Amino acid sequence: MTENFEVQFIDRDERTARFLVRGVSPAFANGLRRAIIADVPTLSIDSVRIIENSSVMFDEQISLRLGLVPLTTPPNEFEEGDIVTLALDVEGPETAYSGDLRSDHELVEPADTNIPIIELKYPETADSPQRLELEADAVMGRGRDHAKNQGGVAVGYRHLQTVVVEDDADEYSDSEPEILRGVIEERAAEHAVATDGTGEPENGALVATETFDNDLSKRYPDKEVSVRDVDDAFVFHVESDGSMSVDELVTNAADSLAERATELEQAVQL
Description:
Elements: E1 6-12, E2 16-22, H1 26-38, E3 42-53, H2 59-67, E4 83-91, E5 94-97, E6 102-103, E7 116-120, E8 131-141, E9 152-168, E10 183-185, E11 206-208, H3 216-219, E12 223-240, H4 246-269
Parallel strand pairs: 9-10
Antiparallel strand pairs: 1-2, 2-12, 3-8, 4-6, 4-8, 5-7, 9-12, 10-11
Helix pairs in contact: 1-4
């Protein structure tokens, strides 16, 4: 395992985060990305018992939609293979939403309540409205076994980059945009222009490129610049499906890496 690494958050909320990890190799960065996607167990609906379905949609289609509804998964509450039962009973004319699912566990519920499942109608020629009643079992599983258990729905990383001012731009040259996306570490603050309203640029500060419209010519006007990767420093962008917070998702992924490294070390020593 990589030791003595440093983590610094750039921005975050409950479901998305961008953070910098220093002192790690590209292999470790990719391992963490894969662990966030594939190794953190979450609850998802695995089997459905249809009691009544008079809608226009087949039972199998209903089940497929239910399986893709993210469910809150409280940390350290369940083990892999544990089951939580949910129920749904909706009568038309009404749309059945994920929020209509009722769980037998107080800490488990749909992460989003506005996901449409099926629109139920009351046809003029029918004696009764359409109805959907069912029970569903949610099972703890991992993303490596099925995509519905992937708590990280958008996970990526790239090198932290820095900008080097090479020289003054040619006085008579045309000013063209120099597009860069991601995060830069400010190392030429004396040449930079503050464009994000946060004050004067400072060396060592982390600056998201969207604050200057991803255009280096706005950050460093009238300068010739080059962009270089910062060794052993990677900026991660992580988005959770709502089954758990980003902090919990990343922490659990790091724990899984540590456990697998320990298992490998013990296996090698046998």
